[in-house]
Structure formats: structure tokens, C-alpha cells
Amino acid sequence: MTAPVQTGAQPQATVPGATRIHAAFARAAQEGRAAFIPFMTAGYPTASAFPAVADALLTQADLLEVGIPYSDPLGDGPTIQRASEQALGGGTSTRHTLQLVKDLRARHDTPVVIMTYVNPIYAVGPREFMRLAQDAGVDGLILPDLPPDQDLEIADLAAEHGIAVTFLIAPTSTPERVKLVAEACTGFLYAVSVTGVTGTREGAALGEVPAMLALARQYARVPVAVGFGVKDAETAHQVAQVADGVVVGSAFINAVQHGQDVGALAAGIAEGCRKD
Amino acid sequence: MPLTLPTYPQPDERGRYGRFGGRYVPETLIPALDELEQAYLTAKTDPAYLNELERLHREFVGRPSGLYLAERLTAHAGGAKIYLKREDQNYTGAHKINNCLAQALLAKRMGKQRVVAETGAGQHGVASATAAALLGLDCVVYMGAEDIRRQELNVFRMKLLGAEVRAVTSGTSTLKDATNEAIRDWVTNVRDTFYILGSVVGPHPYPAMVRDFQSVIGEEVKVQLQALEGTPTPDVIVACVGGGSNAIGIFAPYAYLPDGQRPRLIGTEAAGEGVDTGRHAASVAGGRVGVLHGSMMYLLNDSEGQIVPPHSISAGLDYPGIGPEHCLYSDTGLAEYVPVTDAQALEGLQLCTRLEGIIPALESAHAIYHAVELARTMRPEQIIVVNLSGRGDKDVAEVMRLLDLPEGQSSTPSHNLPGHNLPGYTQPTHTQSGHTPSIMAQQEVQA
């Protein structure tokens, strides 16, 4: 038995976070680019070093994705999981993450979206979490383990607090699921490029991505970004030809871990996001 | 007897048990869960599937398992009759094989050639590897590096059966992390891989499906107790609860009976060193509602939602959550959940071993301890059924480490005072669980 299709909040142009996110995508498109969306785990490599890493990414980012470190991130691969463990070990909590974002938003105008598993939201309490996120200036939420029909309250509460929501589709999603997910997104739609977890895509072939995006665009009233396994300028460039946005995560964690110049890597990948 | 799989009023059509359960998983898996649900619902009423499962139960597992009146345990407690449902008699030594065979058969029907599983103590891994070998499926078992170290023999068994055992070093290197890795593998290889989940946890339809497969335990008790005592329903059923599959297997066939006809259902949670010490695996007594492995349930997680590593003397109960149907039972009073400590479980193990000649798994020993204690407060014509979920072979090395038995003891057991003199082992007191300090100590006083 499949549950009757229900969705949470309908897209609301009045949600300030959604407006800012859509504007960022629109600016990139005007410049002939897919929006560049780098990801970094909050508090990585340390709480004190994180702001400099984020600043370096923000010199290039159209949107910044910040992950709340989580003990059991089952949608993430080993790279982001290790970063989460390190950040948690350094004491970065949910509330601390939101404070880090608040500090970033005081220095930058670039929209910030938070990636979080649902349990930290439930633990803090959905309403309290949204209140804290709004206060921090969070523009959007990416919820990797929350299919939109699982919880009808989260999206409504987010909207109430001016925050847009992003749900994910995958190559395995049926047309019915794509429609359901696409219609529930108020920020952008996140298309996962492969079956798998973050950071594990092999090769540069787009595979099923174009067909998935074509389907998604039939229903989405928001921009469509692609992520998982986009690791360099070359893969970013390929994805940028078919997507409105390109999400890159594990590559930056690896760069930080190996002491590489994050700003330079970001500049290269941002350049790769240019449409032909 | 042709096999039928039961139908219960829970979960609802969205896979919810009240507020618990659901499908909190990456979108990639949702179509696979839909596919699994459909395949299961079809198989559930297909005579070809049911007949094959029944044949394997009978010829391969050795079902039905016995329902055994534990006369000396009963005499020791001096109250209600204590029956043991002997899931330890199953091939591979525990109730796990019931579910693994049923899921592996389902995998085969669905055309999946590869199965993945997670394991803590190794029982579910061995059962999965066994089912895979029997049905010719490729099998990968994820196991925490720490558990691999502790369960060397079971690791070898799995390898001997042809399974690949992959060590998990992320997180705490134990069962919850092995489960994360099994789910990640499934997300990656979802199109040709079947995930054999070992307990009544995970995203819908797993908790319902595993419950249905384990319900054979309770259904057999009804028939066996009718023959032995002239009633299908005992006064009390006690079973240990980690994720909760053996407990739901014996509870569910009784849980939805009307009030007044339903026996008391008691799940014993692993209280470890005590619920108030923070070193335990008692999700109902010491947890709060949260989401892990795709399901909302009572869960050991901190105020920020980070999962708190559990602790139990028994690796099989060492899981931070408890199945969503148990959560509903707890909230609605259909069942009770009581904490039993490591030390109490050790007492339960020794009692059962010395009085009945049955070495129970440390998991089951939690249930035995509580049952003996409860039996004392009941009348002789009343009946307790304890689900003896598995045998203790796998735990013998750990028990040997904990109990420094004196030389000569093995040839001259003290039958009157089982376990009363165990040097190197101090009986702690356990006030937080509501239990009296020690049933063995009480026996000494009575003697």
C-alpha cells in the first residue's frame, strides 16, 4: 500500500529565503553560469578555522551549503562522515552551527542553506529549530533523509519562519515521486546524480542525469541543482550544461583535510560552472 | 500445517505505528521500499512462497521449536510455572533464521542476486549468510570492527558460508554503524541488491515484515500451550528487547487481543550498568523519541539529536533504538518494558544453565532474570512463557571472562545455591531498575 500523495507547504514566493535563493540562481543564469553551491561541514576542520574556510568558499559561491555535523549521516559517504565526526569531536553542535551561520551572514550577503538530517531538528524541536535558524539568517534547508510526504509539518514551519526547503530526487525516483518532490520544494530542487551517497560518483558521464532533470522540470517551480560526486571543474562543467546549479561537497572537505587552497579550488570549479 | 502469515491492525497505510515508524530515508530508497512492500504483500498470500517457507521451517530450521516447562526454574522461583519457548533449538541457534530465510526467499522472488545485512553479535550475519548459501545468493555482511574483534568465531562462520564480511570503522565501530553502512550499500546498489534487515526496525515495511516473519514464535506458543495446559494464552510473556524482533514475534499474536484476554507482555531492555549511569541500551526507560535508520522510535540521543552509543553485556541488545511497534505498545500500555542490568542478566544465565542445563544467550538471560523474579509474585497455577531467543554458545567466552569460576566447581556444582559463590564477581545493587538486588541472594536467604 502506498500512502496517498500529500505534500507540505506549497511554494510561496513570499518566503524571504526562497526569494533570495531564486535571485541567486537568476543572477548566475544571467551571467551564463549554473549557480555554484559549495558545501562545508560546520565546525570543520575546527570551529575556529571554519569561518576562514567558509569565507574562501563565499568568494566564489552563489549559495553556500553548510552541514550540521551529525553522528549517523547515512546519506553521506566516508569523506563527509569523517568531517562530521571531527566537527562533533570539536564540540560543534546544532546551536553552534546556527551561530556560525549567523556570523557568516553578518559578513556576507550570499544566501546560506543548511543541510541537516531530521533528528537534530526533532531533538531541538521543529518550531524552536526554525526560530533559531531564522534568527541566524538561514535561507533554506536541505533535508537528505526527509522525503516530503514523511512530515507535513517541517515545510510549513520553515515557511512560517521565512525559510525555503529543498528535497531530493534520485535516478530511481518514479515520475510520481519526482512530481511529489518537485512540487514540495520551495528553495531549489536537489537532483542526486547517482544512486549512492555523497562523494562516491565515478567517472564523468552524466548518465541518467539529463533524463531525470527533464522530468523534474515538468513539475518544479524552482531551480534544479545537481550534486553527489561532482568533484572538479570538469565534472562541474558537464553538469552545468544541464542543471541550474552545481553542488560540490566532498572535494572541499578533502581539500581542507590535505591543506590545499580551498579558494583556488573553488575558483576553478566556479569557472567550470560556466555554460557553453 | 500450511503456513499463513498474520495480518495485524498496525501499522497504518503510511507505515506508522501511531507517531512511530515511517520512512526517513534518502529518496533513492523510497522506490525500492515501495517495490519491497508490493513484493511482500504478494508473497504473503502466494501458496508457492508460503509452502516453501513452511518446508524450510520444518526441514531446515527444525521448527516448531519446543515449548518446555522449566520445572527446576519454576521450583526455584516458587510461584508461577515458567515455560521456555526454545528458539535456541533453531538451526544457527536463534530466532534470527526465521526472518532471514523468509527475506532471502523474497529476494530470490524479486530477482535480486545479491543480499546485504548488518550484524552486531553475528547471529543475524550468520543467519543471513546461511540463508544466502542455501539459496545461492551473494552475501555481504557489514560488521563493526569492534564486534569483529569480539566475535571472531561468528566472523569465520560467515566466511565459511561464503559471505564477505566488511569491517566498519566509522562512528563507534559497532552495530549502529554497521547498519548505516548496510543502508549506504543498499542506496548505492539498490537496483540489484536486497537488504536483509535483522530486526523490527528500519523504514516501513521492514518492521511490519520482520514482525510477520517472527510471529511464527507466538503462533506456535498458542498451539503448544493449548496442548500442554488447555489454554492458548499464558498469564505473562517475557522477552528481551534490543531492536525487538524476538519479542514482537511472541508478543504480536497476543498484543491485539481484546482487553481481559491479552496476557501481560513484558519486554526486558538492556539496562547495562544501570539506566542512571548512562551506560545502557534501554531505549524506552532511558531514551527520547527520535529518528534513526529510517524510523521514528524511542532512541538514545542527546538534546542535540546526536546518537548516544549504547552499552550492554549482550551485543545483540546493544542498539540505541527499539522498534516502532514496541514504542506504540509502550505508549498505549499493550506491553510493559522493564530494564534489566548486565549483572542481573548474568544471574539469569547462570540460573538457567545450572537449573535447566540450558545455556541461554545473554540477550535471553535478561528475560529469564525478570521472569524468575516475577514468577515469585504469582500463583502456582499461573503461567509465564519466556522467549528463549537464542543459545549462549556465542557468549561463553565473554561469560568466562566475567565469571571466574573456582577450580573444581564444574565437577561439583552447587545445585541448591546456583551461582551463590562466584569469586571475582561482585553482585551490584540495582535500585534504579526497580528490581530487588539479587535473586540469587534471595535464594540464599530462603535456603
UniProtKB/TrEMBL annotation, chain A:
It comes from the Bacteria. The keyword Transport does not apply. Pathway: Amino-acid biosynthesis; L-tryptophan biosynthesis; L-tryptophan from chorismate: step 5/5. GO terms for molecular function: tryptophan synthase activity. InterPro entries: Aldolase_TIM, RibuloseP-bd_barrel, Trp_synthase_alpha_AS, Trp_synthase_suA. Keywords: Amino-acid biosynthesis, Aromatic amino acid biosynthesis, Lyase, Tryptophan biosynthesis. Coiled coil: none annotated. Its EC number is 4.2.1.20. The active site is at E65 (proton acceptor), D76 (proton acceptor). It catalyses: (1S,2R)-1-C-(indol-3-yl)glycerol 3-phosphate + L-serine = D-glyceraldehyde 3-phosphate + L-tryptophan + H2O. Belongs to the TrpA family. Tetramer of two alpha and two beta chains. The alpha subunit is responsible for the aldol cleavage of indoleglycerol phosphate to indole and glyceraldehyde 3-phosphate. This is Tryptophan synthase alpha chain. It comes from Deinococcus aquaticus. The gene is trpA.
UniProtKB/TrEMBL annotation, chain B:
It catalyses: (1S,2R)-1-C-(indol-3-yl)glycerol 3-phosphate + L-serine = D-glyceraldehyde 3-phosphate + L-tryptophan + H2O. Its EC number is 4.2.1.20. Keywords: Amino-acid biosynthesis, Aromatic amino acid biosynthesis, Lyase, Pyridoxal phosphate, Tryptophan biosynthesis. One of its GO terms (molecular function) is tryptophan synthase activity. Residues 424-435 have a biased composition (Polar residues). PROSITE patterns: TRP_SYNTHASE_BETA. SUPFAM superfamilies: Tryptophan synthase beta subunit-like PLP-dependent enzymes. It is an enzyme of class 4 (lyase). Its cofactor is pyridoxal 5'-phosphate. Pathway: Amino-acid biosynthesis; L-tryptophan biosynthesis; L-tryptophan from chorismate: step 5/5. InterPro entries: Trp_synth_b_CS, Trp_synth_beta, Trp_synth_beta/beta-like, TrpB-like_PALP, TrpB-like_PALP_sf. Transmembrane segments: none annotated. Residues 64-390 form the Tryptophan synthase beta chain-like PALP domain. The modification N6-(pyridoxal phosphate)lysine is found at K96. Residues 406-435 are annotated as: Disordered. It comes from the Bacteria. Belongs to the TrpB family. NCBIfam families: trpB. The beta subunit is responsible for the synthesis of L-tryptophan from indole and L-serine. Tetramer of two alpha and two beta chains. This is Tryptophan synthase beta chain. It comes from Deinococcus aquaticus. The gene is trpB.
